[in-house]
Every structure is written in structure tokens, then in C-alpha cells.
TrEMBL record:
Domain of life: Bacteria
Gene Ontology biological-process annotations: electron transport chain
Segments forming a coiled coil: none
GO cellular component, as recorded: periplasmic space
Signal peptide feature range: 1-19
DNA-binding keyword on record: no
Modifications made to the protein after synthesis: Binds 1 heme group per subunit.
Residues that, per the record, bind heme c: C138, C141, H142
Protein name: Cytochrome c
Database matches in Gene3D superfamilies: Cytochrome c/b562 (1.20.120.10)
Keywords: Electron transport, Heme, Iron, Metal-binding, Signal, Transport
GO molecular-function terms, A-Z: electron transfer activity; heme binding; iron ion binding
Organism: Ramlibacter algicola
Amino acid sequence: MRTLASLALALAIAAPAAAQNFQKPEDAIKYRRSALTVLAAHFGTLGAMANGRAPYDAAQAAKSGDVVALASTLPWAGFIAGTDKGETRAKPEIWTEQAKFKEHQDRLVDNMQKLSAAAKSGSLDQLKAAWGPNSGSCKACHDNFRKD
């Protein structure tokens, strides 16, 4: 667990600096896609446990809770000017409706913090209770800002 915490701290410190130094738009796109892939994997782990598709494992839930809390804060630095083209499913509305996009970001981060707290509680019931209200965070943003 100490290693995960150290990695999380290093990523949290390094991410803002890295986000400022993308050499090419493709680097920013790769960064945000990678962060979202990690988020989705651990979000899926928690969802599988909450919905009974996987056995509940309190230790794994806590680890995934840590990851979703951190990973939910990372991708946004990669949505910079010039990253609307290339290997991306980002819709133009990300840049034309920035206030709305920011609301979705903030809601996702807040929801993932709540889900993380429940995941780290050691209680399947708390995980289930947090899962329902927070499970739509990704879909809401994708519906508005991601091409299928």
C-alpha cells in the first residue's frame, strides 16, 4: 500500500508539470487517454463488485478507490489547444462549451472522491450505496463531449 501511495503522490506532483510541457498535441492526447483508461479500469473493478459481477474484495476495492480518486483529476490537463484533431474522440464542444465541460470534470472528480471513500470503507453496502448515484458520471460527459 505504501508503494501505491508513493506512486499516487509522485503522479499528483508530476502531472501538473507534465501537462505544461507537452511537446506535441499527440502527447497531450496520449496522456489524457492513458489517464482515462486507468480510471475506467479501476472504476470497472468497483462497479463489478458493487453489482455482484465480481466477488467483493475489500483490499482491492480500497486500491481501486485510491486510483479512481487520483486518476479522475489527471486527464483534464491533456485537453489543450490543438488536441481536437488526431487520434481522439473528443467533440469540438469541449472547446466551444468550456464552462459546461469544466462542470462535468468537477462533477466527475467529486463523484470519484465519494466513490473512493466508500470503496475504502471496507463495506460492500457502502460501496453499493455510493455506486448508484456516482455511476453515471462518465456517461454524462461522454454523451455530451465524446464521439462514439
